[in-house]
Amino acid sequence: MGLRYYGAAATWIRIGTFVVSTRAHTECRGTELVGQDVWTVAREVDKALQQTHVPREFGLELSNAFFALERSGALPGAVEDCALGVAVLILNALPQAEIRFGTAKAKEYFLLFEGLRQKYGHLWSVAGFAWNLRTHQSDSYPLLLGLKPQGCYDSGVKVYVYDTIFASRPLECSQGMFASEVFVHQYLLHSSCRTENPAEADFFFVPVYAACVMTKDRKTAEDMDIFYSHLVKEQLTYFEDQGGIDHIFLWSSETYDFPSWQDYIPDSLFLSVEARPIECTDFDFFSEETADNFGAHCKHCYWCFTPWKDYVIPGFVEKWSVDKLRALEKPHEQRSYTACYHGADSDALAIYKYANTTVRNDLQTLRGRPGFSIGYRFVRITEYFDRIGDCHFCFAPKGLGFWSNRLYEVMFAGCIPVILSDHIGLPFDDFLDWSSFSLKWPMDEVGPALAEHLEGLLEFQRPAVEAMHRAVLRNRCWFDYNSEDPDCSPYLGILRYLRKKKEAMPRSQGRTWDIVTPPIRGTPRAVAEREGG
């Protein structure tokens, strides 16, 4: 999108579909419709977002202010009063714009934001205040809105992407550790791997933002079961052509959110963050209220994940977090702490009492040991980032499932993960040597012996620890869904897997076939073959 000026001495420009004044000011005194207090909130939210998460109501306040400006036609005047304040309003309004008006409208607003940023971004630090113009998800919006075409890593894989009703809000669903369900979908949707011709497709991707709709729309397991079963029977047009073996479903949490999957998609390919999914018999959603039922009615399924057809993928870490973690990480030789862990246990979250035995509680017994930083969560997320960036080893204990997003977070801080989850499935272990950049320790042996082992590594095997640290830095791009490294990203890892599946997959030549006889010379078929048709 370009900025088009009207005449050499013009005072108005067009940004997208909007016409705004070139005389943008930074006083942010307020207009008739937007008081100075709105700009104050915008500044404080913009500032706070660089340190931690902000309560949802503040984002809604900024969203409503922007929508009111646009409806009233007062947007040009607001830009003249506080151009970068308007940019902050837009950026925070985008998820709500998607919910209210659809992704196409959100894309239009994002282009307006980009126009304002390009035109007035040089004013970012005027009047004693520095605008950041960034939320925790905004760096990913170009990919999520289809403004950043993706390649296919020369994989030779072609994927047909279905359109489903529960995969229509990528911006709203792009936050949090379950967002791999969004990013893999949007990557395939906007990559050169995609084909809209089912006859060319090697695989068929079925996008469903299950974790998002279950948490944000409060859909139950029964709701999802009905949705998925109808989807398979009525909407997956090409499912029966190969019996579903070329159809891909993605599970971004510790559960397969399709309770009846064994009846409908037992042979389909699963991309999953969890290799031992949790199955429950009589309640829908994990919460503190249902924690007492977990041990009685939920269990890990040790056979649901089939290694010969299914594949473990990493959980999602926001680009904002990745950038902050990398900015705060210290060089190996300057780190102060032997090992760190800051997170919840069953004393803080009752459901962990049934989900992970005692591993998180056992870690708390190391609190107070010299060189160990052990405790609960920091108030500000950047304090946590700063701490793990100052640690040699970081504990990654079992969560509700065997997988843990902490495993990926700590690597972005340059910290060597110590995996405390006996049955965890590790992504890309068919080509990554996890033993070169992580440690794994039995869950039921967490205590002084573990601490002494780590202390001994630093004291007596320093070169080996330094080599592991370098391997962490070298391999963490495989877990970064915003990686732009052409040789290292989760998408490349997934495509490697799909390429191997493609080479091994049986292919029929249609529903029926007959004896093929040589064509008679001169027939239309023979002529076409001679002419290359």
Describe the overall structure.
The chain has 533 residues and is of the alpha/beta class. Strand 13, helix 15 and strand 14 form a beta-alpha-beta unit. Helices cover 39% and strands 11% of the residues. The N terminus and C terminus are likely disordered. The longest helix is centred in the first third of the chain and has 27 residues. The protein contains 19 helices and 15 strands. Belongs to the glycosyltransferase 47 family.
Domain module tally: 3
Query: What's the helix count?
Result: 19
Number of distinct beta strands: 15
Portion in beta strands: 5-15%
Structural class by SSE content: alpha/beta
Q: Unreliable segments (pLDDT under 50, ≥5 consecutive)?
A: 1-10, 517-533
Q: How confident is the prediction overall: mean pLDDT?
A: 86
* Rg, Cα atoms, Å: 26 Å
Characterize the biggest β-sheet.
5 strands, parallel
How are the strands ordered across the major sheet?
A: 4-5-6-7-10
Give the proportion of residues in helices. 25-40%
Q: Please tell me what the overall shape is.
A: globular
Gap between N and C termini, in Å? Answer: 41 Å
Pfam families: Exostosin_GT47
Protein name: GUT1 protein
GO molecular function: glycosyltransferase activity
Domain Exostosin GT47: 155-446
